[in-house]
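Quick log. Single chain, no ligands specified.
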Amino acid sequence: MQAELAELRKLAKVAPEGTSATTPAVPTVASGQQSSLSVPPAFAPTPSSSCAAATNNLQGLCITDKSIDDVHLTAAHVNELFRVYFTRCHPYLPFTMCRSIESIYDRCPMLFWVICAVASPDTARPRFEAPIRGLMLDVLDPSKESGVEMVQAILILCMWPFPFNSQKADSSFIYSGLATQISLSLGLHRPALDAGFGNEPTATERQGDEEIRRTTWLACFVVAQIQASRRGVPATVSADYSLLSSLDDPAVPQELSHLCYISHLTVDATQALGARGSNATGLVEPSSRISMINVFGKQFEDLRRQRFPQPTDIVEIFYLNSRLQLWSFALHNDVPVTANSVQIIYQAREDAIRLIQVACEKNLSLVPFYTRRSVCYAGLLLYRIKLGSYGCQDDMIEHHIDTARQALSTSEGPGGPSVGQFLATVTLPDNMDAFTRASGDKDSPHRSRMGAFLVFDFHRVYTDLRQANVFPSTEFLDFDNLPWMEFQ
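-> predicted structure:
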């Protein structure tokens, strides 16, 4: 039997490039259960060059069926899910990783099942949640060592979390911290050194292993910044010399390098503006804030011109979202309306419109959660501008808020965070007066939330209105299932 398996592995590694793909089905369930789930057309294989490239990039296919709890996948189904992952998911966080499916399964079942989960249709993903959460318990067991593959699995989960109804139910921030701590314990922050971290690869493994370690640590940095920005708290990972020098390493995927450069500048800007003021909130006083916004704005422009003058959509959306966080510091209601502040507001308007345009050209049901949240953030920022005294109440703002509302509402799967409904409710005309009054409140408790303060301000009024029961009755909105704590 062992000899036969070895032979099958060899055959899988040299599978012909023209091998036809098998249409993926949703996971079958164990006996006694039936599934009515179906695969949406978006996940059916198409004879595209990207799918062919993903097939060629796999260094070894799955040769045996796989099961965990009540989820059963055929080998052909697994192969297709991995093709979907490397084609549609991996480009958003392109760290270097093992490309042999059977090797991944042997080294880290958690990584294997996470990839299968995020590549599955929305209707099928919930079946993976309980088994994967069970595998996560291995991280807390000191007798079970966690390797770099476990870090990669956790990072993927942070980008593609399981459906949640409130931010309190989303584990992404905690998972990001776990990924960082495991990475540090493995010495990934010093990828080229064995400084007593137990990193002793053989000579033939050293080069590939170093590349995996280096890019995984860079991915940790990006994910930590995303999670910190979402919650309006200081970043947990800083960019030191080792990290920054890695960004020009030819072995680092260019898109990952670009994301790291953006994250580095985002962390610097939000820390300088929102955490180093001489007051309890950490917010720098208005006149200095405007000057610093202009300085960092110039640095963002220089970064784009020097590093990615023609960015991919993934990089551009990430870049624009970071710039919006910077501009949002001028939207605090302690900033007087001056020529300088209005100029910043107009730039924020242009960036928010551009982000919505680029992102909404995509199928938002296939992007990471942070991309959908970026669209919601851009819509909220445009609405805050509309409510302010900036002379920006034009049709373009309303048109793009509506575009964001529609794109988000039509892309959200069952049981997931309904940011589309949140944006739609916040921007209801009947609620405009309440949000206008709130935008002038100079005692907002969320001034310490850095670039996320807008979301928390909107949510506070939103919750107050709900408690006062003043929302109009409408068949479109299901208030019982709205994410009341989504951004809290």
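The first helix runs from residue 2 to 13.
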